[in-house]
Amino acid sequence: IITIFDCGVVHPTHPRGGTQIWSNKTAKPVSYYPHQTNILFMVDRVIRGDILVTLDHVSLYGDSHVARFSFHTGMISQTEFKLKYTKSEIDEAINDSRFSNDFYVELFFEHIDSKVDIIIQDANA
C-alpha cells in the first residue's frame, strides 16, 4: 500500500501526523513480484509543502509498515519535475533485505498554474 500525507495539515488522530491525501488501499489488491522492474501508480493530486509517503505490506495477517520517505515540494526541480530516492535514502528500506540494493522510487510531477502547486503524476516503485 502506498499512502501520501500532507504533513502541513496535521490530523490529530492520525498516527503519522498528517492528513492523508491519497492511498491505493481501497483499490483492488494487486500482487507485485521481485522480477517486476517497474510499478506505476497514477496519483493525480495537487500537493504543496511537506509530504510524507509511506509503503506498507499487505498479507493475510494484516498490514505492516515497511518504509517511508518525505520531501518538501520546494525540492522539486523546476526543469525536470521529478525526485528520485534510492534505497539508502528511504527510511527503514536501507536495512531491509526485501528491497534490492538497486531499489529506488522515482516521482514524476507536473507543473500547474502556481509555482508552488505541483501534481504527483506517477511514482516508480
Q: What features would you describe in this structure?
A:
Helices cover 0% and strands 51% of the residues. It has strands at 2-10, 18-23, 40-47, 50-59, 62-72, 82-86, 104-111, 118-124. Residues 115-125 have low confidence and may be disordered.
The strands making up the biggest β-sheet line up spatially as 2-1-4-5
Helix content: under 10%
Helical stretch tally: 0
| Main pleated sheet | 4 strands, antiparallel
Report how far the terminal alpha carbons are from each other.
Answer: 11 Å
- Secondary structure class reads mainly beta
Number of E-state strands: 8
Radius of gyration: 15 Å
Provide mean pLDDT, rounded.
80
Estimate what percentage of residues fall within beta strands. Answer: over 45%
Please provide the ordered H/E string of secondary-structure elements: EEEEEEEE
The coarse overall form would be globular
Structure summary:
The chain is mostly beta strands and 125 residues long. It is 0% helix and 51% strand. The strands form 2 sheets. The protein has a 4-stranded antiparallel sheet, with no helix packed on it. A 4-stranded antiparallel sheet has the order 3-8-7-6, with no helix packed on it.
Characteristics:
about 120 residues, globular, mainly beta, about 50% strand
